Amino acid sequence: MVDAFGRRIDYLRISVTDRCNLRCVYCMPPGGIAWQPRESILSYEEILTVVRAAVPLGITRVRLTGGEPLVRPGLVNLVRDIAAIQGIQDLSLTTNGMLLAALAQPLAEAGLRRINVSLDTLDPARFRRLTRHGEIESVWAGIQAAENAGLVPIKINAVVIRGINDDELCDMARLTLAHPWHVRFIELMPIGNTGEWGTGFPPAEDRRILVQEMQDRLRELDLTPAKTPPVGNGPARAFTIAGGIGTVGFISPLGDHFCARCNRLRLTADGRLRPCLLSECEIPVRAALRQRQEITSLIRRAVGLKPAGHAMFQPDATAPQRRTMCQIGG
Questions:
Q1: Angle at the Cα of 176 from the Cα atoms of 172 and 177, rounded to 5 degrees
Q2: Low-confidence residues of the chain, pLDDT below 50?
Q3: Closest among 66, 111, 65 to 90, alpha carbons compared
Q4: Given strand 283-284, what is the order of strands in its sheet?
Q5: Structural domain of residue 225, as residue ranges?
Q6: Are 209 and 189 a contacting pair, CB within 8 Å?
Q7: Could you report the per-residue pLDDT of 277-298, keeping only the tens digit for each?
Q8: pTM, rounded to two decimals
Q9: Domain containing 28 — which CATH number?
Q10: How many domains are contained in the chain?
Q11: How far apart are alpha carbons 249 and 225 in whole angstroms?
């Protein structure tokens, strides 16, 4: 599939649930959100139907997301079934790592290739504050289990927030000196949670740090462009520290648009194809799936509706999105 702007679309991100076992401040408001009723969430068989329809159209890569995908029972079985579909060349998963220690080996045996772990700080107390109760020790145990299971390369995703964790950029980047990990710093995106986060957190207008400032703060590490970017590097721009065995990356949808290289569609847990993360446009597929109708035309329609790029900073930009990241799929 090629969209109207010449981009080949070969990557499908699938949210298997909107539920999560953490309450990260940039993802959920203090009062939480209303979960989708269980009957609104796509069944595993419905998800498989979408993947089987998408592969002949050119989808070769699938990533499972949430919410937190590991909270959904039976996920190992879904991984096994997707991995068995001829034409799937890469199957990965994004997780907060809290449940990964017990599931890493079964997921690897089922056919999962690699993982991304969301980790915004190295400080245990700060981690609890950011996640509103998470224990960082569980995440480290999950990362170790993933390495032991061969779910590599491991990518560590850190959302950078001014006044909260921006003082840890160098420390997190230095993880790549001792570990073959790929640490990626992500700009905070205005997706569904631009209100107040609670006592002690900065107001919305003071939170964001663009990639240019991140790179300036890391200047002392003398980053150089990576000769060989990690597998599945996606929109990240990868660099290395002298003597490092991993990479440092930047995902910058706002400060340095990567829209021209976008190759993906998203399927939300409640059955909507989303052509662009930062756009409200969605194509419902759940009804068609439950009525046993073909969905090939809906997938093609979603590709046809992919915009040239988001318009967050343009004068006519839309208001912040109503759906939170856990409702869309990370």
A1: 110
A2: 313-320
A3: 111
A4: 224-225, 237-240, 247-251, 182-187, 155-160, 114-118, 90-95, 61-65, 11-15, 264-267, 272-274, 283-284
A5: 11-328
A6: no
A7: 777 889 999 999 999 999 999 9
A8: 0.92
A9: 3.20.20.70
A10: 1
A11: 10
